[in-house]
Amino acid sequence: MSVRDTTPDPSAASFRERGGREHVPGTPVRDLLSAREFTLGDSSVVRRLLPTLGRRMVGAWAFVDHYGPDDIADQPGMQVPPHPHIGLQTVSWLHAGEVLHRDSAGHVQTIRPRELGLMTSGRGISHSEQSPVPHPQLLHGAQLWVALPDHARHTAPDFEHHAQLPQVSAPGLDATVILGELDGALSPGTVHTPLMGADLTLRQGTDLRLPVEADFEYAVLTMSGTTEVDGVRLDPGSMLYLGTGRRDLPLRAVDGESQFLLLGGEPFAEKLVMWWNFVGRTHEEIATARQDWETGDRFGHVLGYEGASTPAPALPDHPLQPRGRER
């Protein structure tokens, strides 16, 4: 098994030339990231693992929420009203349950476990996310954002749904390639920087070393079971930042089967302003996007959602400053 680089479009070559690695430790690290709990929409409680204190990004991965498993048999489940995005891609990833996606570009799609829902906001889109009626008893998943580089962040908005994704197997290991490439298996999801994401299952008793790309930085999010990653025990909802400079990654399933996400990518070179649901480059750009949402410009309308859209919060009193990958 080997991990290879993704195949971005030719304009991404300048990303490699600019680097980003000068701000990343050249040796592996083991930083356990602390989660903060938030209420998402009307009812869902999520654990936010990225951005967090000291760490804003892993490659182009700029946001990670983990939620569930929650018993929603007698509950409405996920109810996230229409809200806007610029400058990013959203990745909806489920282990249990269903999420109904609607967006202002006209896409309506139910996303199920191990299916990729990938929305590219580009210059602006709005969407809602709901547990459909009726819905399964359990809801468990992760919501992730990928920051778009400058050459791709003003594109037209789009949405991709891929029900079938490449699989990779090794003794004691099964993996689904979410984005990018793993062991020669390439996800059909569109990427704009050197990036990878995979959902891995380690069967009971598995102890192996997974080859990885030395130029990438990585993090692991445990979804269920207990995973030991490079000697660090990770319980469900835990995320470990691993840095760069690795050729392989020791993994071990502890006390039964474990399931986790491996997120990686070449360190993102550009400084970003990340505020609310927007990823931009300047305070003025963010302020304009907020105003456009409040006035009904640019972001369109999500048809079929019954209820009000999410109002934008107030901007802070001080100008928003572009920042690098670390807080």
TrEMBL record:
Cofactor needs: Fe cation
A UniProt-annotated Pfam family: Pirin_C
Cofactor note: Binds 1 Fe cation per subunit.
InterPro entries per the UniProt record, alphabetical: Pirin (IPR012093), Pirin_C_dom (IPR008778), Pirin_N_dom (IPR003829), RmlC-like_jellyroll (IPR014710), RmlC_Cupin_sf (IPR011051)
Gene Ontology MF terms in the entry: metal ion binding
Basic and acidic residues bias spans: 15-24
Matches recorded under PANTHER family: PIRIN, PIRIN-RELATED
Region described as Disordered: spans on this chain: 1-27, 305-327
Domain Pirin N-terminal positions: 48-146
Protein name: Pirin family protein
Positions of the Pirin C-terminal domain: 198-299
Keywords from the UniProt entry: Iron, Metal-binding
Similarity remark: Belongs to the pirin family.
Binding site for Fe cation: H83, H85, H127, E129
